[in-house]
Amino acid sequence: VMQCSASVDVLFLLDGSYSIGKGSFERSKLFTSKLCDALDVHPDRVRVGMVQFSSTPHLEFPLDSYLTKQEVKERIKRIVFRGGSTETGQALKYILRKGFPGGRNSSVPEVLVIISDGRSQGSTATPAMQVKERHITVFAVGIKFPRWEELHVLASEPAEQHVLFAGDADDAANGLYSTLTGSVCSTTAPGCKVESHPCERRTLETVKELAGNYVCWKGLKQPNAVHASLCPFYRWKRVLIKHPSRCFRTVCPDPCDSQPCQNGGTCVAEGLEKYHCLCPVGYGGDIRCAPKLSLECGVDLLFLMDSSAGVTLEGFLRYKAFLKRFLQAVMGQDSPMNVGVAQYNNNVKIPIEVGQHKDAFSLMKSIDDLTFSGGGTLTGRALHYIAQHGFRSIPVFADVQEDLPRVVVLLTDSKSQDPVAEAAKYARDQHLFLIGVGNSFMRSELTKVTGNPKQTIVYSDPQDLFNRIPELQRKICNVGNPEGCQAQSLDLAFALDASAGLGLENFLQLRSFVRSSCLHFSINRDVTQIALVIYGSRAHTVFALDTHTSSSAVLQAIDQVPFLGDSASAGRALLHIYGDVMTVQKGARPGVNKVVVVLTNGGGLEDAAAPAQQLRDNGILVFVAVVGNAQRDELLRVAGSPNYLVHMSSYEDLQYYQNLIIERICEEAKSPVNLCKPNPCMNQGVCILGPGSYRCECHGWEGPHCESRVLRGDSPRSSVLPLHSQAQQSSSGLQHSSRASRHTKRH
């Protein structure tokens, strides 16, 4: 972040001797690259050069060779360890004799950075003094376990500001910047200041230690006379010695110090002045994590919380936190406050009546006051009670009747001890919209309560519960709305398992599911295009994206789809869709979202994970709908996310899950589009994005999508395809693109 931007020549003197060793030499190179981050490398500002020394000095590159920081770093990576004795004095004499190679002849300040272990095999005091007498600023950086006394001799005064340790690269880079700021560099950024703090330098020294005494024989002056004596026994060992010192560092105020992120957001600094907030789900309405959802759709909303022993105190507190986070996210100052909360175990109580609180603060306080009850789990009884007593509408005027949808959100992680289906049906007959929220083990019971898996929300772990806040908001505000996404533009391909493992009867049910799903889409060139691929051991395109332009034609073609009856390979089907269906040649439109729906019994998915990831990497969503027993881990590898996987126990369940699948597909149709994914350019053309457009860079081909081979004598061209006008296409299967452009403008 902080860089020295003055005109200065910086020469690194890198120790490449055997006492350093190849490993520490590589670490020295990495450290040197880190130091470059503190320098604004530019021909008119900081120039960098390097000399490696061991027995003799060797110029690696002069100061005028590389003019950008990236070039310098790339060159440093290529430097090779030379080895030899540590002749630091000879290296300093080389600098005295040659000057700074490629430098600006002392017209700008000169800085010498010596990176060494300080274990020179010759005298360094005299040449070091002569270098400093030439007004060269010398930094001595210790590597490995250096001899600090020698480094202090090499460095400029005061030594505390010019002696650094490479073991902490970030700290040393800051120290280099801090010292240069006080001399050659521009002043520190506003609010930043140089501070000193105590630190320590460590080194390994070989010391002589008394190990004990042993019996030895000593002669006397008399002839032939000796006597026994005790003689000392010494040994040498290496010990770690710590030298107290002071370090100087530049300290700047963090833009996150003021805690600018609200509602539990995490602040991430971007330099000295900027930051961004990582916001919890449901927040992000502005840069400080303001609520971005709303309940301004207008409903009477009652949360029915399980407070029985089955949900446990931990689960109850988790649902309280979820409820508060949800309401904080969706309720602005002007949102209707028709919210209530009921609790149940063996009995039901309504501590917060619907519409009781008219401001968010008092509502949150009442939620805080809710207490855990324990006891049995009678969900059926609770639903029946809520249907009769949960909504007590009291109009302001006698002739004004409230007619808002009434929504009950059931929060439970505990199986009911009484039947729920009949009570739930009674509640729905009273025109209550039921939404169920619970862990994944509750899916079946929650579906019985809601009567529709689309109205059920399950989570896999506590954090995943909070990630479901936007989904719950959408379900609350979409109660009673018609299904489908008639107006969404989409390129949609179904991959239908037609293998023997599936069987003819089940194949016909999946085929019927594809047929009824197509009724949810407006099929034409400008809105939704649909392709169908069936697969066994090989994949076959029944019809491509641009084959049919009406719903009737698509439905008629689906009715003719044959059963194959051989082994299954979903991987081959996905590769076929990637290379031969979702392409410009076969009708795919740039600027339109693309979805592949795989319908299978789970067989033949072993080879599908990699092709599915390839599709996702190219901007194509893969949705997997599986009927029957299959390994969930394998299914998740193909789908990529639990959000794009529907696992059903029987083929009769297809009708119940159709709305959920269509909703997920329609959500994808609204997401942002990358015009270059998948690549619209044919024949190895390269797609290059521009502002609201793309162009194909062709090699040996020409045309908007590189579809025409360049004739001899011609030169390849690339055409810019604006988002609002994707040029008139050639006659080789590209006629749809100009029509698609009318849609992509709306995107």
TrEMBL record:
Protein keywords: Disulfide bond, EGF-like domain, Repeat, Secreted, Signal
PROSITE patterns, sorted: EGF_2, EGF_3, VWFA
Keyword Repeat included in the entry's annotation: yes
Residue ranges of the region described as Disordered: 717-747
Biased composition (Polar residues): 725-738
Residue ranges of domain VWFA in the record: 9-180, 300-476, 491-665
GO cellular component: basement membrane; extracellular space
GO molecular function: calcium ion binding; identical protein binding
Signal peptide span: none
Source organism superkingdom: Eukaryota
UniProt domain EGF-like: residue ranges: 253-290, 672-707
InterPro entries given in the database record: ECM_Assembly_Org, EGF, EGF-like_Ca-bd_dom, EGF-like_CS, VWF_A, vWFA_dom_sf
Main location class: secreted
Listed Pfam families: EGF, hEGF, VWA
GO aspect biological process, one term: calcium-independent cell-matrix adhesion
Subcellular location: Secreted
Keyword Secreted among UniProt keywords: yes
Subunit structure: Forms monomers and multimers.
Listed name of the protein: von Willebrand factor A domain-containing protein 2
Provenance organism: Geococcyx californianus (Greater roadrunner)
Gene: Vwa2
